[in-house]
Amino acid sequence: MKHILKILVNNHPGVMSHVSGLFTRRSYNIDSIAVGVTQDPEISNMVIVVKGDDSVVEQVKRQLLKLPDVIEVEDLAYHDCISRELVLVVVKVEDSNRTEIISICEVFQAKIADLTKTTMTIEFSGNTRQVEHFLEMMQKYGIQEIARTGQIALKYRST
Amino acid sequence: MPKTEAKISGARLMVELLEEYGVDIVFGYPGGAILPFYDELYKSTKIKHILVRHEQGAIHMAEGYARSTGKLGVCIATSGPGATNLVTGLTDAKLDSVPILAITGQVATNAIGTDAFQEADIYGITIPITKYNALIKSADEIARHFQEATLVALGGRPGPVLLDFPKDVQTELTSVRKADKLKIDPRHYQKPPIGGDLDSFAAALNKAKRPLLYVGGGAINANASKEIKELAEKGNIPVTTTLMGIGAFPGTHQLSVGMLGMHGTAYANKAVLECDYILNLGARFDDRVAKPGEFAENAVRAHIDIDTAEFNKRVSVDYLLHGDLKEVLKALIPKVNKVDRPDWVGFLDTLKKNHPLEFDDSTDTIKPQGFLQKLYEKSKGKAIVSTDVGQHQMWAAQYYLFEEANRWLTSGGLGTMGYGLPAAIGAKFGNPNKTVICVSGDGSIQMNIQELATIAMYKKGVKILIFNNNFLGMVRQWQELFYEERFSESEWNYNPDFVKLGEAYSIKGLRISNKSEIDNALEFFLEDDEARILEVMIPAEEKVFPMIPAGKSQKDMIEFSDTVRAGKK
């Protein structure tokens, strides 16, 4: 089962090593990790997606809270958070399929960020399932390169 | 805003902070990158610096000092190799929850990351083995880091912290002498409130017919001996301790069943199998004690700990309480019924009688077990005993009984050979009026034997007992039992003459090999407050029993009598 951990940490060098080292040391597998500063420049928000049963994730949470630089750990269940991932994908294009790809991008509300005679770089954001779906659609045109950010997430405010 | 005062150097400030904090002794070794600090230390009248012969010795001394006094242990090293020599000790302190502050020199900030002379990324290296660590980037940050580090080292579950101190930060001037605001959350240093349902916890204990207390090192860190005794006596609950918990409950108490686990007493391990309720007090279901899924499987399991990450980590429990053990027990005891348990206590008394600690004492050779019994009697059980790691460590744990906490110093979690001698020196500095005995083996003692020089230099009356079997005894034992007697690299015939070696450092020594010599030797060993080396020749085939083979459970325990029946002694 996948868990999305939202971890607030002090924003200074070395904290990332402390947190990721804890996962490595205990051989917990990280699916994705995304870090960015919050509205308070001294605090960063880390979003870590991990696979594991509930007891493993509970253990991870408790270990994280022992780190002096960790301020708060929250386990966001998939259904009550809004999560996004940004992907940049380079696909091969030919004259014959260019319009086809553009129309798929329109359906997905993906942006074309760069265009050459033979390639198209597309920017897409959505939740993990949507990103996977979009990449699947692009597969048949020949993916040349992918850059993904990993997930970021926030809790839904509405109830 | 921090108060503006006259500016002083970072090194001066660090020394003043240590003084203000009440540190009066530090263990260390100077070197280039820590010289400004040593220069300020030279001027201090309040702090005594103990010069060691190896930085590993410094940190184990700090550990021995901390564990025998309950205070913070402080050690100093220079950058690079000095700092990396602390790594074993930091790991040891992390696993055994010992409050240590390590201060390391670092190359100047503009040289960091350039592979400068004697540079090592000790901050990065020690991330997984410290509770807190920091690279101090400016002298203005010293006060905050110092405060955070000392609070974290002693707060909650204690542990080691490291401050890496670049040379230019040591000479940089600052007026910030007090931390304005700490960056760490108070949960890292304040006592946590009691978490969990005390009533249902107590109710489950009151329902038990055959309860057992399983006491770990956390009980000593929480200073909870008095409360444990009160709980045990009120409910007539037998007590077993882990290797780390030895001394938390009086070893001679009628309710004591001694140590449990791999080399625990047969009666303690049988008590674990027979109990219907087991209450873990500050232990961690370590793999030398508990096999997940098979540990006290028929019992209700309960756990009190200050570290929530220990709950359900290896063994799942039915009831748990979070908090400072002393505080939790104070709240719990009034809810526990006063009961006599003649059947259960009587049953354990019979077990003790029928399955005692045993060894074959029929020959003239000296048996370490019998020797330790004599040592216990002669020192009236009042000594502080440190050990190294191996057979001698287990025999000492079995045969030397402790009435009080903080008198048994051993490397439990990491199993660090070379711990015993420096730990004993540290303990002697912290307890100058007590007898301090280091129990070691011919293998272990050679891992930090250079600290004999420290003993000689400071004239510290540390008593060093070396059981010599010309083998790595515990390795040999495993090879005999599990590797068909292939003694791969465990036998050695190149031991130094330990007595002569002692003489080289002006330490008096004696070697004995016959049982008839024991009494005189012990008299010589303990007669005054001078350092002594006593080398005791023991048979190589002597083994530690009982034994639970690694990865097995209490059910698979091998007792001495089992081996006698099988024709193997």
Write up this protein:
The complex is a heterodimer of chains A (159) and B (569). In chain A, 29% of the residues lie in helices and 43% in strands. Chain A has 159 residues and is α+β, with helices and mostly antiparallel strands. In chain A, the strands form 2 sheets. In chain A, strands 5, 6, 7, 8 and 9 form a 5-stranded antiparallel beta sheet that branches. A 4-stranded antiparallel beta sheet of chain A has the order 2-3-1-4. In chain A, a hairpin with a 5-residue loop joins β2 and β3. The longest helix of chain A is centred in the middle third of the chain and has 12 residues. Chain A is elongated. The two termini of chain A are 24 Å apart. With 569 residues, chain B is of the alpha/beta class. Chains A and B meet through α1 and α2 of A and loops of B.
Report the average pLDDT across residues of chain A.
92
Order of helices and strands of chain A: EHEEHEEHEEHEE
What does the average pLDDT of chain B come to? Answer: 96
**What topology, given as strand order, has the largest sheet of chain B?**
3-2-4-5-7-6
Main pleated-sheet profile of chain A: 5 strands, antiparallel
Helix content of chain B: 25-40%
The class by helix and strand makeup of chain A works out as: alpha+beta
What is the overall silhouette of chain B?
globular
How far from one another are the termini of chain B?
72 Å
Using DSSP, what is the number of strands of chain B? 20
Name the largest protein-protein interface in this structure. A-B, 17 and 20 residues
Kindly report how far apart the N and C termini of chain A lie. 24 Å
| Helix content, binned percent of chain A | 25-40%
> Strand fraction band of chain A?
35-45%
